[in-house]
Design brief:
heterodimer, A: mainly alpha, ABC transporter involved in vitamin B12 uptake, BtuC, 6 strands, 4% strand, B: mainly alpha, two-stranded antiparallel sheet
């Protein structure tokens, strides 16, 4: 069986299973609940999908199992935190040192924020308000830089070593990264809110003919899902429609031959590592308003993301995305009260259970290629 | 002796001597001197040395011999701990049944997890074990609260049944775990000319069990069974082609390893009858991986060294603070002193994990054999200097 035929079959099997799942859920809980739970699971699922996409890119190109990928997600989230901190920096303008009211001074000298000083008060305030989306602009080059430094400085030396060594050294790196963040930002979670215009929820149900208030969905989570969809689509388009992407795909399939054709594969793979780091980073940036970041959030996401990669199939990019979304939705369904009453605590373990079942019954994952890490 | 060859016997005797005199050896600085804070010879820390030593020895039997990297070993430690506390609550305050039961429970638990996880190898095995451990952790912290005490943990109570103690109740205090009336926490203190040596019951109980565990590990390493496991590590495929089914060997190895973890968990609650879910978290599993790698994976003594090393420096580094640093560097000019303190500051106290992570990375990168390899390299260096012997090769001190 040639590979394109088998991958189409894989896709068919996976899609069939998904459709079956939704039909079963709709018949048990009704269509409305099913749609609501599915949408609920999509935002978390898209975070899983983004991290798993980066992990798979790294594994597919460089063959490295990167345990520090969760830390990159966390670093991205803290780019926003750092930006927020920087935006709060101010100075005391001359002549405005005290504002005396009735002989008492209140709140010390009045500070002028740098950002308001440079851009004018109104502009400065809206910059501070939109700090989360704005920090993407900083996060992308920064995270690419971090990724490239990581690959050139450390990972490069581990290509020939066993997978266990790669796991261990990146695990060590993850500890170091999160401890550095902890030393600078403390151990507490720091909230970075969404822009004021995007606070609140919308009534999604009315668009598709459900009764009012059936599916209330926060704007930001909707944005997160769309953002993830755009990023994923962009990555796929990049790989599919550019020459650079073609070389990458060729390198993933057969690195040696591409090298023999006189193409410097290493340099391109290094860039892919940077890109994967950037994807994790911006996924972290945009996740800020949903969950306040703390220094160990990366580790929490990492474990699940690995499960996602394995469920999707090691080295399969569509598999990673599909599995991420599916597991997110599965998690959301298992948190329903009706299910928790039958199987208490299932929401905590459903992802791991799914992974165990997949690993035992379908060794190459949902959409993995035959023979890739199948032992 | 005891079926060991000469080299192993001397290694065992050396470890036994070190462990027996640890309360003296680990207290090299007189009481009240400026360096007394570097002493490690107090019961709490010494207990941790040997208990984590057992844990790491067990982990090493799995990872060192077969190369299967389990990222969920703390689940067995946690299961053992919970079983141990329940034995202390329901049966008797004597620690012997608790330790035995926790070992057995961890063994049963590892049969279950091992049977499933060992169907896959490589990174999949790591992820399967990790998934199981995370499941155990999540369940222990939430749904299994009646059994595990939830987030707060499980501990002994005054009103526990303790059916084997036949209603012997001492006053209004929660009885402390004991060995036939000898409390784990009790110690004999011997002041000798400025030094204070503490000989603790709990420590010596753990130490004896660690020596037994160490002896069994040596026997496993040297046995045909151990050879089989090493063969799995070097080339499992070839082993399968010769018609051997490796799975029973692997499962046996996994269960032995899990029972070591359970023994460590049982000893932990024997020293301090409290078990919480964080003992099962994957960071705890990561810690035992760190210990084994840092000490020298696949060697006999390495994991014990690694466990001692990490626990010692965890204790010492997290104790050092800025004031202490200022004291040490007081002899320097103020400017240099402040710069030095500022440089060292992130690595001490609460930043100890940063130091640990950096050390761990350095070991993986430069010294895959850990502390044992470091020792061998230094030893070889000296040997070469002494005599220009061409055969500089030493056999690894496995």
């Amino acid at each position: 069986m040639d590979s394109s035929k088998s991958s189409i079959m894989n896709l068919g099997i996976a899609m069939g299973a998904v459709v079956l799942f939704f039909v079963a859920m709709s018949s048990i809980f009704g269509v409305q609940t099913t749609v609501a739970q599915t949408i609920n699971g999509l935002d978390k699922g898209s975070a899983y999908a983004l991290i798993a996409l980066g992990l798979t890119l790294i594994f597919g190109t460089l063959g490295v199992v990167n345990f520090a990928h969760g830390a990159l997600f966390m670093l991205g989230a803290f780019v926003t935190v750092a930006l927020n901190k920087a935006l709060k920096l101010g100075f005391v303008a001359e002549g405005a040192e005290t504002k005396a009211v009735g002989g008492f001074t209140f709140g010390g000298p009045k500070e002028t924020l740098y950002v308001e000083h440079w851009f004018g008060e109104a502009m400065g305030q809206s910059i501070a308000d939109w700090s989360v989306p704005l920090s993407i602009i900083i996060a992308i080059p920064l995270m690419i830089l971090v990724g490239v430094i990581m690959e050139r400085g450390l990972i490069k030396h581990f290509y020939k070593r066993p997978h266990a060594d790669q796991i261990l050294v990146t695990f060590g790196l993850a500890i170091v990264l999160q401890e550095i963040v902890k030393a600078n930002f403390g151990a507490m979670s720091i909230q970075a809110p969404e822009p004021a215009a995007l606070v609140g929820a919308m009534d999604l149900g009315t668009f598709i003919g459900f009764e009012e208030g059936a599916i209330r969905y926060p704007y930001w989570r909707l944005i997160y899902f769309m953002f993830a969809a755009i990023v994923i689509a962009a990555v796929f388009a990049f790989l599919q429609f550019t020459t650079f992407g073609m070389v990458i795909r060729a390198g993933m399939a057969d690195r040696e031959t591409v090298g023999l054709l006189g193409i410097d594969v290493d340099k391109r793979f290094t860039l892919m590592f940077g890109l994967a780091a950037a994807i994790a980073g911006i996924a972290g940036v945009m996740y800020n308003p949903i969950v306040a970041p703390n220094y160990h959030m990366g580790m929490d996401f990492l474990v699940i993301s690995f499960v996602v990669v394995v469920v999707g199939g090691m080295g399969s990019l569509p598999g990673a995305v599909l599995a991420g979304l599916l597991l997110g939705v599965l998690e959301s369904f298992s948190s329903m009260r009706e299910i928790l009453e039958i199987l208490p605590g299932i929401n905590q373990v459903v992802i791991y259970l799914a992974a165990i079942i997949i690993l035992l019954t379908r060794p190459r994952g949902l959409m993995g290629r035959k023979g890739v890490m199948e032992d | 002796m005891l079926g060991l060859n000469k080299k192993d016997t001397s290694l065992l005797l050396l470890v036994a001597a070190l462990v027996a005199f640890a309360p003296i050896l680990l207290n090299p600085f007189p009481e009240g001197s400026a360096l007394a804070q570097f002493n490690a010879g107090y019961p709490d820390l010494m207990q941790r040395f040997v208990i984590f030593g057992i844990f790491a020895i067990g982990f090493n039997i799995l990872f060192g011999l077969t190369g299967y990297l389990s990222f969920g070993h703390a689940a067995f430690l946690g299961a053992g701990s919970y079983a141990g506390v329940w034995a202390l609550k329901l049966l008797t305050i004597n620690v012997i049944p608790a330790i035995i039961i926790s070992t057995i429970v961890a063994g049963l638990f590892s049969i279950l997890i091992g049977y499933i996880s060992l169907r896959r190898s490589g990174i999949y095995f790591s992820i399967l074990t990790l998934a199981f451990a995370q499941m155990a952790f999540a369940l222990a912290a939430s749904v299994l609260t009646p059994i595990t005490g939830g987030e707060t943990g499980l501990q002994t109570n005054l009103n526990d049944p303790r059916i084997l103690d036949f209603g012997v109740r001492e006053g209004g205090n929660i009885p402390a775990p004991s060995l036939f009336g000898l409390e784990m926490g009790s110690s004999f203190q011997l002041p000798v000319a400025g030094w204070l040596w503490t000989f603790n019951v709990g420590y010596y109980l753990s130490a004896v069990l660690m020596l037994i565990a160490f002896y069994i590990a040596i026997r496993i390493f040297r046995s045909p069974f151990g050879m089989m496991l090493k063969a799995v590590k070097s080339n499992q495929q070839r082993l399968n082609y010769t018609g051997l089914n490796t799975r029973p060997y692997m499962l046996a190895c996994f269960v032995i390893s899990g029972m070591y973890a359970g023994l460590a968990g049982g000893l932990m609650v024997a020293m301090d009858p409290l078990a919480g879910p964080e003992r099962m978290q994957w960071t705890a599993s990561g810690e035992v991986v760190l210990m084994s790698i840092l000490g020298g994976v696949g060697t006999l003594i390495g994991p014990v060294l690694g466990a001692g090393f990490i626990k010692y420096f965890e204790n010492i580094f997290s104790k050092i603070n800025d004031n202490l640093l200022h004291q040490w560097f007081a002899f320097m000019p103020d400017g240099i002193e402040n710069v030095l303190v500022a440089i060292i500051h992130p690595f001490i106290g609460k930043g100890w994990h940063l130091t640990l992570g950096l050390m761990f990375m350095a070991v993986i990168i430069f010294l895959p054999g850990g502390l044992v390899e470091l020792g061998q390299r230094i030893g070889r260096l000296f040997k070469r200097r002494k005599s220009d012997d061409t055969s500089g090769q030493t056999t690894p001190a496995e």
